[in-house]
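JOB MANIFEST
job_type = single_chain_structure
chain_count = 1
residues = 247
[input]
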Amino acid sequence: MRLLADLLPGDPAEGLAIEEVLLESARQDACETIRLWVNQRAVILGRSQSARAEVDEAQAQRLGIPILRRISGGGTVYHYPGNLNLSCFVHKRPALSDVSSVFRFFGNAITKALASLAPDLCFEDNGLYVNGLKVGGAAQARRGDAVLYHTTLLVQPSPVSMETLLLAMRAGYRSQVVASRPRRTTSMADHLGYLVSHEQVVEPVIDGLACSLNVNLDVGRLTPREAARAATLKTEKYGSVSWNRKL
C-alpha cells in the first residue's frame, strides 16, 4: 500500500483535490493509499452543508480564512497547521462493509496506535475523545468499491477558537440541511500538557494502520496523471464558488 506524507501546510483547495484524485485511483486503478497531510487555515464544509448556516462568514473574511467544501459527508471542521489530517483510501473488506464498520475499524486502529502517547484516547461514534472532549472527527466518501475515510486530529491548539468561525459551536445553532454535531474540543497538546509534534503522532499511526490493515506501506508520490488531475480539480472545482457555495 502506498504511503503519502507531507507535513508542510499546503493549499487547502489542492489538499481537497488530492483527496478526490486518490479516491478515483483506488476505484479505477486498485491503488490503495494512506495519506498524512496538513492544511493551511481553512473552514471545510461537509459535502451537503450550507456555508451560511455553518460559518461566520464575516469573521472568516476578516481573518482571511477561505471556506471550502469536501467530497465527504459530515460536519464542518476548521483546518489549521496544528491539525494533522489522516486519509485512508481502501477497497471494501469484510471489516469495512458499511459506514459504521468503517468508522469503527479506523477509530479503533487509531486509538490503539496512539495508546502509548494518549492512553485516555477513546473512539465513539465517528470521533476520537479524551475525557469527553473531542480531538478528532471523521467522515467518509465512496466511489464503487473504493472507500475514503479521513479524520482531522487536533494535535496542537489553534490561536483562533472554533467558536470564532463555526456557528455550530454557538448557542442557537440550527441548519435546515445537513447539520454539524458540535462537541467541546481539546488538542492533544492541551490534554497532555506539553507541545506534541506532528511527527510524534505520525509514526505510531502509520505503524498501527499497517498492522490493522495487514499491509506493508511503501513511501510514494502522486503519479504524473494524478498530479495533473489534482491541478485541474483544484482550479475548476475546489477553487470555484460554484462548488464551495453551492448551498
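[summary]
The chain has one domain: 2-215.
The mean pLDDT is 96.
exit_status = 0
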